[in-house]
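Work Package 4 report. The design task specified in the project plan requires that, given a folded chain encoded as structure tokens, an amino acid be chosen for each position. We show below one input record used in the internal validation round.
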């Protein structure tokens, strides 16, 4: 089994680049990431290295017999005219509470990035939010990193297709249709992996004051304005979306396979 040492450079590599298929996935933690990665293993021609799980970035970096690698946003943007790049995002208020519930309240050992931030197990949500809001992007644990920071390069959105978790089934079907139109291999149905929250009905318990809503909004303003501009802020904070989230999509240039 390969070593799992992670460098600061690797922490910026959020995109899975396929070398035999003109496809890139911008992975966003806490947004069906495990399920999408499981689906993507269907595109591999060879059995992956033993002892590595597809949920881990090291699997895609060094465990697929050089069929894939991980790249940063700048490199992913460089493939804009030759590769189809896709991702999925989530209501940032819901994503934040999901990270809090799972990483702070449920698991026994905090991720190292959260320890470095000064977060603690079972800390109150309001104090958790204070720490998140006072921490710069470069020092945030990846589960708390704004989705816009992950998916943008110099204010340019890298993926051509960004679906929404709130309507995942419909947007996954739309992605499959788009890939089929481009002559890509079939991804199949989305597996159900690491599903912990059945809904977002507890958001109102966490964002129970205007102050907390505004504080989270200021930290994740770009996520809201870029991916959920049609939703009233209070409705978004309480998980009561008034309008069906739409796919974020731009017209792509022709897709082809360049020499790597």
């Amino acid at each position: 089994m390969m070593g799992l040492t992670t460098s600061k450079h690797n922490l910026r590599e959020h995109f899975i680049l396929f070398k035999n298929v003109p496809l890139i996935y911008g992975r966003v933690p806490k947004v069906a990431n495990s399920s999408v990665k499981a689906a993507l293993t269907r595109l591999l021609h060879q059995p992956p290295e033993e002892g590595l799980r597809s949920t881990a970035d090291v699997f895609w970096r060094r465990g697929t017999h050089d069929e894939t690698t991980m790249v940063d946003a700048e490199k992913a943007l460089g493939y804009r005219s030759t590769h189809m790049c896709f991702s999925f995002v989530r209501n940032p208020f819901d994503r934040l509470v999901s990270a809090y519930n799972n990483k702070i309240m449920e698991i026994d050992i905090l991720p190292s990035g959260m320890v470095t931030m000064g977060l603690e197990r079972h800390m109150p949500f309001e104090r958790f939010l204070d720490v998140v809001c006072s921490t710069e992007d470069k020092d945030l644990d990846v589960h708390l990193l704004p989705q816009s920071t992950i998916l943008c390069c110099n204010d340019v959105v890298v993926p051509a297709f960004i679906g929404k978790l709130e309507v995942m089934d419909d947007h996954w079907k739309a992605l499959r249709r788009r890939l089929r139109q481009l002559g890509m291999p079939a991804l199949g149905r989305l597996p159900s992996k690491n599903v912990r929250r059945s809904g977002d009905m507890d958001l109102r318990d966490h964002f129970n004051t205007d102050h907390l809503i505004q504080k989270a909004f200021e930290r994740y303003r770009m996520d809201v304005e870029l991916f959920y501009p049609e939703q009233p802020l209070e409705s978004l904070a309480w998980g009561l979306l008034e309008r069906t989230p739409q796919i974020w999509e731009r017209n792509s240039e022709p897709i082809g396979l360049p020499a790597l």
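The chain is about 35% helix and 10% strand. Validation will be extended to a larger panel in the next phase.
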